[in-house]
Amino acid sequence: MRRLLQRLLPLALAALAVGAFASACGGDDDDGSPSPTPSNAATATAMATPTASPAKRIEERLRGVPGIVDATNLSWPREVEGLNGRRAIKAKPMKIHTMSAGIDEITLSLVPLDRIVGVGSATKNPDTSSFAPLVKSLPTVAREPEAVVASGAELVIATPTQKADVVAAIEGAGIPVIQLNLDPTPAGRLNAILLLGYIYGEEERAIALADEVSARYEKVVAVTGKKADAEKPVVAHLTKYTSLYMAGSGTTGEGIVTAAGAKNAGTVSGVKGNQQIGLEAVVAANPDIIIIPMPNEAGEKFKAELLAEPTLAGVPAVRNGKVYVVPPSLYTTNSFANVRAVEHLAHILWPNEFPVADPPQFSLAGQGR
Fold first, then answer.
1. Deepest of 234, 241, 286, 324, by most Cβ within 10 A of its Cβ?
2. CA-CA-CA-CA torsion for 189, 194, 199, 204, nearest 10 degrees?
3. What stretches in the chain show pLDDT beneath 70?
């Protein structure tokens, strides 16, 4: 039964979390547009039979993962297909650098710290990454090609939106770059873990992490997916820096709100993406709850503005004081850490069923972490 659930899980996740985990404002990542139909070895989570050899079980779990050219090849060299074409990885990479806080978070969960040559400033910032305490001792590497080359990396992982001239400059220095085609659905997040595990030669660790992420997500949606539509609150995901923004369809915010058992105010109002709005849009959305994924000081200031705004006095969230500043390190990163945001919001919405206010970090690889 458990194996059947594992095999069906990612398809259920994609259905329950409409538009889940798309790119968000506030970080240094951008996953680009969601793939219309996520595929696959995440959707074959437990295809392997118990009697199969370890290599055979790994092969069956990796088969169909977008980007893996030959899942039967567990030796070196091996090939993967990125947005920038097919790339060969000659040997297990021991000096890794990624150009994204979200990919850093996956990488830090798959390999020991000593295999990472440095991280971007966003990964070191506790406002944008929950992994910041872990990487304090690592060098900060700027996004310019010269800095990446100087880091000593022997393999670089880039985002879909990385500029072609930056990728070309790094590869011109003899460092292979794999530009990932990230799929921001729940199944896509699992596939990213498995693909990076294959790239790094950490297949078993990647499978274990994917199972862990699946289990925690499944535990939440098993409860929230049964909520009647009438009992689901309307939640507005708002941020304000130079302008006011609401998360609509196709955003990380929508996916988190939906999976946690609520209706996303932006989606209900016809907002697409992270869209700039005016206060009248908040009034029209009439949310029961407002969440503010911003650094604490700025978030609390924005919260005070909302609560004091006469125009919003009749909005249920404002009238009832249900405005929450939430950690952007969970809510805006483009990695499986968004599952912790789902757990966090589920606690706010349904505290009796989800009593844990501060969801624990996922397990980490190597060095006893």
1. 234
2. 140
3. 1-51, 366-369
